[in-house]
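Researcher: Here's a chain I'd like modeled. Treat it as a single chain, no partners, no ligands.
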Amino acid sequence: MAVISTPATLERAVPVLDNAEVLRIRNDFPVLNQLVNGQPLVYLDSGATSQNPMSVIEAEQEFYEQRNAAVHRGAHHLAVEATEVFEDARQTIAGFIGADYAETVWTSNATEGLNLISYALSNAALWAAQGRGGQELRGLALKPGDEIVVTEMEHHANLIPWQELAFRTGATLRYIPIEDDGSLRMDQAAAIIGPRTKVLAFTHASNVLGIINPVTELAALGHAAGALVVLDACQSAPHLPLDVKELDVDFAVFSGHKMLAPTGIGVLYGRQELLDILPPFLTGGSMITTVTMERAEYLPAPQRFEAGTQRISQAVAMAAAANYLTETGLDRIHAWEAALGQRMVAGLESIPGVRVLGPAAGKERIGLAAFDVEGVHAHDVGQFLDSQGIAVRVGHHCAQPLHRRLGLTATTRASAYLYNTTDDVDRFLQAVAGVRAYFRA
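Model: Modeled as a single isolated chain. Structure tokens:
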């Protein structure tokens, strides 16, 4: 079997996934074994939501069949077992991203994680003024004159919470622009990120452009300015090896449903010294030490940010998903998806009237490609592909400012994962090649 060497392999050569092994992997995913409009399903929408292997489905089912109980609240046998598997799942996810146990907070999804950080920071000044959180929290409070920096390619989930934080605190929101090929203007990043920057938030990999951003370089700029660095890892955590400590970010978020896990579960990573001083996002049971009729005292992280009944079965299933990815090998997955992404882009670029967003063929990208078909609306392209059993995403992909910058209102996006073959990509390309003729564009 051929081998490939990439920075992610950490000085060792690893076997590359091939179609034969991917077909074996595909058998673990029951939803993929069906016909859509009389054609075998080609699922190329994993950038929105991935499918679940049987090990993940069974992990959640087994919890309900054998251990269903509230965690942290009971002394009976089921409650103890439920708490054990719930916290074991947290430890698994912490290891999956190179974090510590207490730095790993369960959320509903990445969007909630980003809102948690934004909301907590907006309350920092109030808490500090009341003597809560200490001098360290006072240093995190935003005020007029401070700046929050994002990028022009952000998903709305990593843009709107910062817009609202700026509104609540009087801070100014700025953004790092992109080149026409989607890459960040790093020269402008160095000029924009400065002494007034309090938060720098950016995506690891763009859900539209497929581009992988220079995380460590951006983090270095942010930390040199004294800013908190927030990473949106939704399109990276499921697809390539991720170590938040090596990347040197202060916070990171990602969602389970993009990495083989169920919906309704996500993760916030935060450096423990930051999580332990931030005001909580949701308040209520399970996140307190002492409550009187006048006030409450809160637990340290991670429980500090986990009020109420938790997403127990989803957390167990997410740990099973992380184990599945780890056992398959994230370096292998990344290499395979990168090859599929190159195949998609090269094929799309060869079709007359098709414009591909992001890096050209031959340049690094994750395994997705968003494109515009001249004279045909993206929704029509998506329906045409669906008629041939091919599932893709259409619309602005929650990135309206990015599409506006590129002169578009909507695109079609194909996104691959570890269960896609080269035949899936070739069927997709053959279908796209027939779009303009079908619509007489």
